[in-house]
Amino acid sequence: MNYATQMTNEINYSTSEDLATGIDNLLLRCVRAKSGEKLLLVGEVGKGTYYESDLCLLVKEEALKQGINASVLYAEPVVDAASVSDQVREQMSSSDAVVFFSRLGDQTRFLPSPGNGKKVMCYTLTKAHLRSPFATVDHQKMTQMLQMLETSIRSASNYQIETSDGTNLTGEIIADGSRETSTAFHVELFPVMIFEPINCFNLTGSLIVSKFITSTSTRAYDDSVLMIETPVNARVENSVITSIDGDRQTVHKIVEQLERAARLSGGDPYVMHSWHTGINPGTFFEGNPFDNLEYWGTVAYGSPRYTHVHATGLEPGDVAYHLMDATIKFDDEIFWENGRFLFLERPEVSALFTPEERKVLNARHQLDIGM
């Protein structure tokens, strides 16, 4: 199975049908489940499911071998976190840990959810993802790398985001304690995909809106994808879009979409809430993203090539802008360059990983995400 295109042509992967490495990485290094503990695996059922349906059963089988009391609950995706069924809530409350192979986990990632056990949102949509380096590189080492990155970000005072098509945004890192620098997740992500979204503070400059905008996956709504044929320039001042310049019909469609999405929560259509960029070079996507852009974004946002901006409505937002191959600086030091995650090349970061792991954890490694 060829699960990704190796853009650098440096490594030729052959995948094994054995999923045990990825499953063990999830259960033992991420969930840290122990024998005798109760583990709930939440899967999707109904129309338009994102996950291969047997993933939960495969993980359950491996968990039972290790003495973990695992069970599977399938539930339909819902509109938002407030709509999660009583059945799901009750089973979450009585579990030592919960793993979501479902968009329900995405919808609860910014909000407290029932039960005191650990919650994990799993982004391995397919068995190909679960058996690949995307999910098999040691989760604890990836978490260490993430912590080092977040420490570096919090110690900065400002940042700049640039893309080749004209986006140029600058913002400040809040250091006075008046607001949180980033928005914490209430679930752990598996695999490690992104850093905690950086809250926009005095975000200023030009945002080129092109190709499409989508939802943030926090609240579901009809026609959440808007295709954009002609790029427009959104002027941002103090974290609010103050004007949109470009083709009149395109601007009208965007304004209509922003105002419709904002009515879901009653927030500001033009506010910019937060942003993050992918940090897992093993991220890949097979197929045509334009068949279902919301599905594509569920996994593609872990790629260092992809910067995801949350906006509109109440936090964490109901519209996502998508930037590709950005150059991102903190205090004038480049962390991403044209979508390449240079932070991985720092000696103290590289030292975390084995030589084999470094083959997929370096700035040159870029897999195909369909864009």
Task: Write the topology of this structure.
Layout: H1 20-31, E1 38-44, H2 55-65, E2 69-75, H3 86-93, E3 97-101, H4 103-107, E4 118-122, H5 127-131, H6 133-136, H7 139-154, E5 158-162, E6 168-172, E7 188-190, E8 198-199, E9 204-213, E10 226-237, E11 240-245, H8 248-262, E12 268-277, H9 293-300, E13 306-313, E14 319-324, E15 327-330, E16 333-337, E17 340-341, H10 347-350, H11 355-358
Parallel strand pairs: 1-2, 1-3, 3-4, 4-7
Antiparallel strand pairs: 5-6, 5-15, 6-9, 8-12, 9-10, 10-11, 12-13, 13-14, 15-16, 16-17
Walk me through this protein's architecture.
The protein is α+β, with helices and mostly antiparallel strands and 371 residues long. The radius of gyration is 20 Å and the shape is globular. The two termini are 21 Å apart. The chain has two domains: 20-136, Response regulator (Rossmann fold), CATH 3.40.50; 139-358, no CATH class. It has eleven helices and 17 strands. Helices cover 25% and strands 27% of the residues. An eight-stranded antiparallel sheet has the order 11-10-9-6-5-15-16-17. It has a five-stranded parallel sheet with strand order 2-1-3-4-7, sandwiched between helices.
